[in-house]
Request: fold
Amino acid sequence: MMRITTRLSHSRAGIETRPLKQENKLKYPEDPIQFVLLPSNARKRYKGLLSLQSLMEQESERSSFNTYYPARNKSLGIIACGIAFNYLMENYPERKFPHPVLQLGQYPLPFSKVEKIVNECEQVLILEDGYPLVEEMLKGYLDKNSKIKGRLDGTIPRDGELNPDIVAKALGKEVKFGMKVPDIVANRPPELCAGCSHRDIYNALNETMKEFGKQKVFSDIGCYTLGALPPWNSINSCVDMGASITMAKGAADAGVHPSIAVIGDSTFTHSGMTALLDCVYENTPVTVIISDNGTTGMTGGQASHATGRLEEICIGLGVKPEHVRVLTPLPKYHDEMVNVLREEMLYEGVSVVIPRRECIQTLGRIKKEVKVKVEEVVK
Ligand SMILES: Cc1ncc(C[n+]2csc(CCOP(=O)(O)OP(=O)(O)O)c2C)c(N)n1
Ligand code: SF4
Reply:
């Protein structure tokens, strides 16, 4: 098992690819009902899972991702998990560590290696990004005076990401990196692209909501989530894929009116449809805005299952055809959008508003691809 933390997930680097050595052969499970998790079978499967633990531990013990670097000065030992090992190396570029180091990259914990460093060293500093998982495992709940140091005793800040400076400070070294980021790569808040269709629908929604009040817009996850930030400040929630319509329904059930959901076309077919059906079933007064840009913009422009069939899906789920309204989100149609939103918000039933205009990034990419193909054919 690998442990994925924030910075690891957001890192990028050039990699060398090699030809595929072997692919798993298609094979049916030995036990034909092993994936039928009825309680009687689930209990059996859990026993099986437990019996695998020692095998996984043995793999971890043998793994080259869990390497022990010996050193003489045992006043301190360092357990560096995942990307924290890179931060440690930035402090010791030659890999000449003054203290024993256990690099952890594969889980479960390799028990004997961990035991060795803890027994050998007077104190043990745990460097791990995110939650202090390894530290908690080693420290024990009631052990306040442990020799284990890390996020829990304040040696390292309890929250926030690790970086080479924090590691240096914890090791009593001079903080030399200063983490000064050159202006050209300085942080800037994410923003909807200029010309993005979500901008136009938020402009219209904001104007409509002047009439209906604040805190009534439940959103989902996609590029449109950026509508939570200035200058729009249009949405009041984003919890997970599919939570917009369910939360709007809950709010409507609790008496919020109008109750509005904002969801993307792709997220809608991933996990919004069942919630819409629920609204239809109970004729809940919600207005669902499905901002249809014909793609999965946020994750790089993959195709969307909704493309070409969104109205049919909504009508098929039971939304009345006259309350499935398609709009073109462009500044010139601003007033029309405001009027349609107002009408549907006043309606005491389920309505779906579909602002439809392609994501300009995906559109640009497709145009480029077509151009290259045409040029190839012409050649
Ligand atoms: C459970 C889950 N799976 C996948 C993702 C990754 N993800 C983030 S946004 C998104 C979909 C975005 O597409 P859409 O709703 O059409 O909005 P757009 O970005 O195009 O505006 C996905 C799949 C996630 N956040 N959660
Ligand atoms: S990638 Fe597409 S959907 Fe996302 S902000 Fe840009 S134009 Fe809008």
User: Anything to note?
Assistant: Residues 192-193, 196, 198, 223, 293, 297, 359-361 surround iron/sulfur cluster (ligand 2) (CB under 6 Å). The first strand starts at residue 67 and ends at 69. The beta strands are 67-69, 76-81, 101-104, 123-127, 148-149, 217-219, 259-264, 286-291, 324-327, 350-355.
